[in-house]
Write a structure and sequence with these properties.
This protein is α+β, with helices and mostly antiparallel strands. The chain has 13 helices and 9 strands. A 4-stranded antiparallel sheet has the order 4-5-3-6, with helices on one face. The longest helix is centred in the last third of the chain and has 33 residues.
């Protein structure tokens, strides 16, 4: 089990030696300097998101990615604040949604282009302020985990690097909202608030705080006391979490495609995806947890169908 400790116990806290930083990252300082100075440390490509919109991915190449992974590991060992549900073991989009069950009104907002808007300067200041690193060490860390002057979209270190860059704002908002009886949770760039007295006016200081840091809140959604709200992929109701209907439909469609699959390769591909979908559904709602054993058995039977058919066919041919 991963041990977590206060930020003051982190090996990054109070770091004032670039040579020590290099050692923590598993590289010699001259090699680190040379690597950071290279212009081609990233592979940039475009993917289509679920909504059909293109998204540019800035993925560090293997040598740089090893440094990012090590930095992400060091950051993930720090005990996270209660409101943070991303990038921390034992918390997920499910626990993020669960925090708002039976909490009255719900308001959601996203931080627009969170990674591209988190600059080299943000990261530099974040490590100065939160980790009390010396200026030259904080600057080198910012050099390591930014691309084109901002946090890259495809790095394992980006989520926590961006969070600690803006932790001061998140902490201030959490304290202010908690004093009013409102709960805040953060999942990467998703902000969710819930509480009986919650209303749109609570968004004004939040928008102003992030605007002062060059970030913009958008995609605001408000839900009433009796409304189900979609929070990070789960439906929040007064009775608990529920899987969105579209995900139930996707699972049903997967079983249809599995039943029609004509090759072992296709069956294996669909089966793996279906198993992931039903296991994820079981992590969200009780109804899916009860159905899980039966659905697993059905996937197994449908998967074995083609294999048995192949064995039978092969046996007939050999006679």
């Amino acid at each position: 089990m991963l041990k977590r400790y206060p930020i003051t116990d982190s090996r990054l806290f109070g770091l004032n030696s670039k040579k020590r930083l290099a050692s923590l990252l598993g590289i010699e300082l001259p090699e680190l300097r040379k690597l950071v100075a290279q212009p081609d440390n990233y592979r940039v490509y475009t993917i289509l998101q679920g909504n059909g919109r293109p998204r540019e991915i800035e993925e560090p190449k293997p040598q740089m990615k090893r440094l990012h992974s090590r930095l992400a590991e060091l950051l993930s060992r720090i005990a996270p604040p209660p409101y943070l549900h991303s990038g921390t073991k034992g918390r997920s989009y499910v626990t993020n949604a669960e925090a708002h069950v039976a909490r009255g009104k719900v308001i959601k907002a996203d931080l627009s282009k969170f990674y591209p808007s988190t600059t080299h300067h943000h990261v530099f200041v974040g490590f100065l302020r939160e980790f009390k690193c010396s200026g030259d060490v904080a600057r080198l860390i910012a050099d390591i985990c930014t691309y084109g002057g901002h946090v890259p979209t495809g790095s394992p270190a980006s989520m926590l690097a961006a969070f600690y860059s803006h932790k001061l704002i998140f902490d201030q908002l959490d304290r202010r909202l908690a004093a009013a009886g409102i709960r805040l949770t953060v999942y990467v760039d998703d902000l969710t608030m819930s509480g009986e007295i919650l209303n749109r006016s609570h968004l004004c200081p939040i928008k102003k705080s992030f605007k002062s840091a060059g970030l913009k809140c958008h995609k605001v959604r408000c839900y009433g006391r009796r409304e189900s709200s979609l929070v990070t992929g789960a439906m929040v109701t007064n009775d608990g979490l529920r899987l969105p209907n579209r995900r139930h439909l996707n699972i049903g469609d997967g079983f249809k495609r599995l039943g029609m699959a004509s090759s072992q390769e296709e069956i294996q591909t669909i089966s793996r995806k279906l198993l992931g979908q039903i296991n994820e559904a079981a992590s969200v709602e009780e109804r899916s947890r009860r159905k899980l054993p039966g659905l697993r058995a059905l996937i197994f039977r449908l998967s074995e169908r083609e294999r048995r058919s192949g064995v039978s066919s092969g046996g007939q041919q050999s006679i």
